[in-house]
Amino acid sequence: MIKKITVKKEAVAKLKSLFCWAYQNELATPPKDLVDGEIVEIYSGGGEFLGVGYINQKSIISVRVLSFEKVEIDREFLKQRLKTSIQRRQSVKSNSNAYRLVHSEADLLSGLIVDFYNGYLAIQINTLGMEQFKEVLIELLIELLNPKGIFDKSDAKVRKKEGLETQNGVIYGEVPEILEIQENGIVFSMSLFEGQKTGFYLDQRRNRQIVSNYITSDMSVLDVFCNAGGFGLYALKKDAKVKFVDASLGAISQVQNNLILNNLVSTEVLQEDAFDFLTKELESVNRYDLIVLDPPPFAKSIKEKKGAMKGMKFLLSSAISLLNPNGLVALYSCSHHIGVKELEIMSMEISINTKKSLQIVEYMYADVDHPNVINVPNSAYLSGILLRILD
Prior knowledge:
Elements lengths: L2 E4 L2 H8 L4 E3 L15 E5 L5 E7 L5 E7 L7 H13 L10 E6 L8 E6 L2 E6 L2 H4 L2 H12 L3 E4 L5 H4 L7 E5 L5 E5 L2 E5 L14 H8 L7 E5 L5 H8 L3 E6 L2 H13 L6 E4 L2 H8 L6 E6 L11 H17 L1 E11 L6 H15 L2 E9 L17 E8 L1
Parallel strand pairs: 1-3, 8-9, 13-14, 13-16, 14-15, 16-17
Antiparallel strand pairs: 2-5, 3-4, 4-5, 6-7, 7-8, 9-10, 11-12, 17-19, 18-19
Helix pairs in contact: 2-4, 6-7, 10-11
């Protein structure tokens, strides 16, 4: 028998708008025999059904909705959800053999991420409720996709808040230490064992292509926070001159491997802190036609937003000062708390301070395999803006 819980008035309107979460302080007194991780039906104080999902009273996000209809959350339910998510990714296959198959709340499977890497799967489970279905999910993924191997990349720190240990290892078949994937004709090496996120920044695929559309031969390009070198490799394919910068030795090693894989040569590949590098670069004579700034998330919570904005302003103002006339800068934020609006306001402030007019050339978001669901604002986590100096 599925247990029933009641949420307070402040949660009712959000759930009726198809928002998938109810917070700890939005729960009425739950049943005494309630077990964290189990499936529950969610009701208003007046007895109106609002959804079905799972509960974890230890987590700030205590309830996560899996369906807004009164359905049974069983093997068949999960199978249909997975099949639908997989079918939605058909359009990406023509551009790459690596893409996201399940994007948590954005695919109505809160707490679950599944990525496909050239025949192999990376699975990441971030919640106690979804962890209860792990064995069934693995069986279904094998049945639906017949992968060569599955890697459990459930190593996010958020698992500890859910009362879970982190996991990082092969759970089905075999997975090589290094995989090669292809994206728009460019080959990347990556590792599920050591790579960031589930192994690769798949969400920037479309943005790498967008930025490359503005690159011509002999342009001077600076790729900061380059990670595996995605933006810079696209630029090199256009015969631009590229300098890569990243603080991580692993990232620099990846860039060097990817240059070899694609028979490309870069001017410089530097292991250096981005802020230190830009500070020194401002004192040099070096100038660029395009600068890409793709930093890690500076604001993982609203409390960190002020400090994050300060860091982003330094990055953008430094880039503006390092650009040649009519130069371009691509700036990204992978935090829901710093979106396009914040990037626009910051760009305006810097434009005034530097006395340089800035043209918005492109707005950029995560690629279609990382969907943005209007009912779940947190799904719009990646925002980018491509600016041109008007000289």
